[in-house]
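One-letter codes give the sequence; the fold follows as tokens. Both lines appear below.
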Amino acid sequence: MARIWWCCLFALLSLEAPTYGRDVPPGVQKSEDFLFDVQPRTIAAGETAVLRWSIKGATKVLIEEASGSRRALSTVGTFGGSGTLKVSPKENTTYVVTCEGSTTYSCASVSIRVQVKKR
């Protein structure tokens, strides 16, 4: 469990997108085996972005989020090994995915920049 915590902390602090195979065991590091992405990466307030993931062998995928005003992770939901999810963050937000398979754990993050119109 400590390994997952450190992986998620690293992913949250790195703020890279997309992330492929970070902390994935040998043999599962190919990008076609592990994908977590968001499109578009920059949106205006009120717009929607789509999270996309595909993690070969994952039996459970937990997605969490943290924003600029709320640095602690909060759960978005638990999903299957592949899917999409529409999100509409109101401020810059990082999404963290933690995956669980039969004996493997992996973690990655993607970030969305929200452009706020100046008045």
The two ends are 46 Å apart (CA to CA). Residues 1-30 have pLDDT under 50 and may be disordered.
